[in-house]
Amino acid sequence: MRQSASVIAAALVPLLLLGATACQSAPEGAALAPAAAPAVPVDDGAPGGEDAPVRAAAEAARVGESVRVDGAQVGRHLQAVLHAYVDPAVSVEKNFAPAAGKRWVAASMSFVNVGGTSYGALGRMWALDGAGQRHPVVPTGALTTGKPLVFDSLEVGERAEGWVVFEIPENARIVRLQYQDANMQANSGGGFWAV
Length: 195
Fold this sequence. Notes:
The protein is mostly beta strands. It is about 10% helix and about 35% strand. The protein has a five-stranded mixed beta sheet, with no helix packed on it.
């Protein structure tokens, strides 16, 4: 028990330090997946058994690797995987495109609740560019690569997957993706993927 507390504390300290250095260009309330998006999550009831290697949340994982996100609330644990990253992302609707001077990039993500309590909502996610600016998820319909990530809750053992889309300036270079748990204080309970 004492060893588990030490491991959790060791994982949270780097998160606090990393989060404190991030610049932000979007409002804090930007949600990971808007409720109005037309797709539904995959809920296969599979208990947290992703086959991808698992990294601590403070380390930057790569495409195909999973990150274990531990929330402050007892029993809140997610296993998050970045399955693919596309740049640019394209809508299946020919008349639906990013604003002038912008482009879309997208990430195929899955989240499995591997804790002992349910999640009412996922947290927030950003694409971080080389200048340190964070770009939030934007609502889109289906992409040529698949449907957006949407769900209302995630029970223990359930899984949600889909694409999250970020609108970024045409000349921006995205270097990593960031996820932050919805029920955490700022700069904690998150994970990073290098892209």
